[in-house]
Design brief:
This protein has helices at about 50-55, 60, 65-90; strands at about 15-20, 25-30, 35, 45. It has about 90 residues and is α+β, with helices and mostly antiparallel strands. The strands form two sheets. The chain has a two-stranded antiparallel ribbon with strand order 1-2. It has a two-stranded antiparallel sheet with strand order 3-4. The chain is flat, with a radius of gyration of 15 Å. The N and C termini lie far apart (about 45 Å).
């Protein structure tokens, strides 16, 4: 749950994702960590996780459990990007 009047960045964004399973459009807010496709039920994750990664009020804003969950996802995404980058460099 977001605090009344975000202390870091007060503007929410609506993100449009394409379900990788069926191609259906999925809408999610920038503060959501995941959303389910209404068409097939596939779980799509927010790969931006914007303010939680940099805002000093994030833990207070979203709560300890959600903060830890979002930071874990961010770390996994970073590791995946680095692995993909290393794989591309190895191919070259």
């Amino acid at each position: 749950m977001i605090m009344e009047g975000c202390q870091g960045k007060p503007q929410l964004q609506v993100l449009e994702k394409t379900c990788p399973n069926c191609g259906h459009e999925i809408e999610m807010f920038s503060v959501d960590t995941e959303a389910r496709c209404e068409n097939c039920g596939f779980t799509v994750y927010n790969d931006l996780l914007n303010c939680v990664q940099w805002c000093k009020y994030a833990r207070k804003c979203v709560g300890d459990e959600m903060y830890e969950h979002m930071m874990t996802i961010a770390a996994q995404q970073k590791a995946r990007r680095e692995a993909e980058k290393a794989a591309k460099a190895a191919e070259a």
